[in-house]
Amino acid sequence: MRPLNFLLIFTVCLAIALFSIENVQLSTIRIIPGVELQAPLAIELLLSLGVGAVIAWMFGLWNRLQQQLAYRKVSKEVQDKDKRIEALRQELESYQAQLEEQPAQLLPEVPAEEVAESSQS
Q1: In angstroms, rounded to a whole number, what is the distance separating the alpha carbons of residues 34 and 46?
Q2: Could you tell me the maximum CA-CA distance found in the chain, to the nearest angstrom?
Q3: Segment 37-75, tens digit of pLDDT
């Protein structure tokens, strides 16, 4: 995907540069009322292209920053949930150990003779 993006950007920049080189007439730029500047149209086009590129780059940085912040938040939530799962797993193991001990305590001890007699019948 990167080579395709590079090719597309390169083609557009080349087309704008060639277009700018062909348009070298002087034109007037009004920055604010009363302030005028005369410059070749090529300079104006290239300058506006540069400003647009900088704005697009800043938007890309802002978007990446937002994604990183969202990723950090999700990553923190996942870590918290993993800790909770581990705590619950340990709690479950302790309950299972308690249950294994309890049946042995609750069952009355039956003499071996009675067990043998009931199995023969």
Answers
A1: 24
A2: 118
A3: 888 888 888 888 889 889 999 999 999 999 999 999 999
